[in-house]
Design a protein that fits this description.
Elements: E1 10-12, E2 19-21, E3 34-36, E4 41-45, E5 58-60, E6 65-68, E7 82-84, E8 89-90
Parallel strand pairs: 1-3, 2-4, 3-5, 4-6, 5-7, 6-8
Length: 98
């Protein structure tokens, strides 16, 4: 469950042996500016709702086991300055909106 009662601008959860998938509700964290989930064991696809994170400046997802294509909604992430997606199993091309 995602707590929306407080402003959480920075989330650093790298190197925590996290497993499972990134929930679609991640898109509810609209004030988020930095999300570090690298070096875990996260699986599944990157949810379409990630595009709702318009304030996100840093997205670190490298060294997981993410699959599928990158959502076209990533083009909505107008504040994004750095993204790390390597060492996953993404397929397809980078969205043209990105």
């Amino acid at each position: 469950m995602i707590d929306r009662t407080h402003t959480h601008d920075y989330r650093d959860l790298k190197n925590n042996n996290l497993t499972g998938t990134i929930p679609e509700t991640i898109g509810l964290l609209k004030p988020l500016r930095s999300l570090r989930l690298s070096n875990n064991s996260i699986t599944g696809t990157l949810p379409e709702s990630v595009g709702n994170l318009a304030n996100l400046e840093l997205l670190s997802l490298y060294n997981n086991t993410l699959t599928g294509t990158l959502p076209q909604t990533m083009g909505n992430m107008s504040s994004l300055k750095w993204v790390g997606l390597w060492s996953n199993n993404f397929t397809g091309s980078i969205p043209y909106t990105f």
